[in-house]
Amino acid sequence: MAAPFLARPDMMYKDSYIAGTREFEAEKRPFRWKIEMLDEHFDEYLQVLHDKEFDPDPGSVPQSEYWLIADGAYVGNLRLRHALNESLMQWGGNIGYEIRASQRGRGYGLLQCQLGLEKAREIGLERVLITCDDSNIASAKIIEACGGGLENTIVLPDSPIPKRRYWITL
């Protein structure tokens, strides 16, 4: 079996991506598209992800989307933001990632973060900000294992959950 890798979103991963999205939905995580729409218009969804990199929405920054693939199936996604705006400086940072529930606890989060840092180097970033909920100990451990130094923990006006802010020098 090939080692897990980051891939650009692609039609070949449609079924496993939708299955992963169902897992996120079961956790009450918000998702941009309803499953039925995603299933019927997956090609359009891929185009939306592509457009975020080269033609972001007003007020947004260029963002590359990658999917962690293991054994030919979608395991999780990583968003690499090429710059930071005011909002991302507070929460979100340069890298955001998640692993689908059925694949957690297997080391994929750490691998995905490490691979994401390589992608950040490739686009010329010298330092990245990664944030996580203060209660998300697993994510905090991943960020720290990747060299993240905690700058601070903040409380945002629209969220009762404090956010940890970590910087990683590349």
**Low-confidence regions:** none
Beta percentage is 25-35%
Number of folding domains? Answer: 1
Encode the helix/strand succession as letters. Answer: EHHHEEHEHEHEE
User: Strands across the major sheet, in which order?
Assistant: 1-2-3-4
What is the helical fraction, as a range of percent? 25-40%
Distance between the termini: 30 Å
**Text of the CATH class:** Alpha Beta
Shape: globular
**How much is the average pLDDT?**
95
Task: Tell me the number of strands.
Answer: 7
Count helical runs.
Answer: 6
What structural class do the secondary elements suggest? alpha+beta
CATH topology, by name, is Aminopeptidase
CATH-level-4 superfamily name: Gcn5-related N-acetyltransferase (GNAT)
Rg estimate, integer Å: 16 Å
Under the CATH scheme, the architecture is 3-Layer(aba) Sandwich
Q: What summary fits the major beta sheet?
A: 4 strands, antiparallel
